[in-house]
């Protein structure tokens, strides 16, 4: 029996490692393809496009680069948490259910990643030069959150998405009013993040301790500040 359990654990480890490696390569190197169409501004705004000044284009590019990095981190976080869920002890069905919940949310984040990359290209802006670093750090955080247990892992999703929602609200305030294309993308991203937080809470996410929430905000502040420039 012990040999069978050890073999099953090893198989889970191999599977989780392969899934994590595949996701990292696809996120960092492969073209990003969205399952949903890119959000568009309302017809009355799309019919009256307004040119952006050089300064406005630079600001929009910097903000969308930050959002692109956020989606890189989201892919890494969810992958790390899903890997931890599959490696955790407990009923196989529950482990798989948690992993699939996280992977379903990650699919929306894949759409966000593709939309942000498309908008960066349209603005003539580049992605962050530190994407591999952001991915590695976020994966480690996600793995740690996942190993803390299902409730904590889902609670981490809730808090992350709440912070992202606030972050996107700030970008809606800062984006040039006439940059309707970027604003439509950010608005849809915000609506998706609200849904992710609600779903994770209903699935059993627990409230994280205040020091953890503060640390998450501090880490996010470092990321957004650096990604805005690099």
UniProtKB/TrEMBL annotation:
Binding-site residues for Fe cation 2, renumbered to this chain: 109, 161, 193, 196
GO biological process: ubiquinone biosynthetic process
E.C. designation(s): 1.14.99.60
Topology of this chain in the membrane: Peripheral membrane protein
Alphabetized InterPro entries for the sequence: COQ7_proteobact (IPR047809), Ferritin-like_SF (IPR009078), Ubq_synth_Coq7 (IPR011566)
Keyword Secreted in record: no
Compartments, record wording: Cell membrane
Pfam families membership: COQ7
GO cellular component terms attached to this protein's record: plasma membrane
Function: Catalyzes the hydroxylation of 2-nonaprenyl-3-methyl-6-methoxy-1,4-benzoquinol during ubiquinone biosynthesis.
Classification via NCBIfam families: DMQ_monoox_COQ7 (NF033656)
Family recorded in the similarity comment: Belongs to the COQ7 family.
Protein name from the UniProt record: 3-demethoxyubiquinol 3-hydroxylase
